[in-house]
Amino acid sequence: MNYVDIPWEEKQAALDAIQRLREEFAARGWFPASSGSLSMRVGRYTPDRFVFAVTADETYKSELSAAPSPPAGVLFVDAAGAPCEPTRLKPCADAPIHARIYRMTGCGAIAHVHTTFNNVLSDYFAADGGVPLKGNELLKSLEIWETQAEIRVPILPNAAELPAILKQIPGSLDTSVPALLLQNHGIYAWGANITKAKRHLEALEFMFEALYRSLLLPPKGHHA
């Protein structure tokens, strides 16, 4: 499907959904210093041909508006991360990472946020290659129903240059774990649609915080 063939209503729904989620996550402090990004796929999909709406580069966008707090910009890009129509907005710098995840998973939406807990744990468990999560009730939000189930959210080393990050993303992703972490950077969580991507992200961030706080507890039987 060409971009021009995607119904206007579907495009508008994507723009509205991203704007609402951007405001909600910003209110939670999950987009510090204009960081983070959101995207949502529209139209038909094949691994080498698809379109997605993605948040714009905040630094560049702010230069286009005299308003002190302009609304978040969103634009449509193709599988290569190039804008689908003329615009003065630029895609967020990590749009190629979104494109790679869409290409490998066929998911419908992706949320990327920076939080204290995902940063601390991604550094703490970096040598292990992933953050272990076990037995938490919110694993069910990832469609994992086994009692005492355990997963590992993969951690990739961060890099200054985007091509270096892209090379580290594995050729296939564990579909049962809809997320990956960049060390000392943030998380990318995805789902079949933007509602599921949001639920996965919220569940993982809750479990990250619970794990972090559990690591601060003294050993059982310890008395001051």
TrEMBL record:
InterPro entries: Aldolase_II/adducin_N, Aldolase_II/adducin_N_sf, MethylthioRu-1-P_deHdtase_MtnB. Transmembrane segments: none annotated. Pfam families: Aldolase_II. The keyword Transferase does not apply. Keywords: Amino-acid biosynthesis, Lyase, Metal-binding, Methionine biosynthesis, Zinc. SUPFAM superfamilies: AraD/HMP-PK domain-like. GO terms for molecular function: methylthioribulose 1-phosphate dehydratase activity. This is Methylthioribulose 1-phosphate dehydratase. The gene is mtnB.
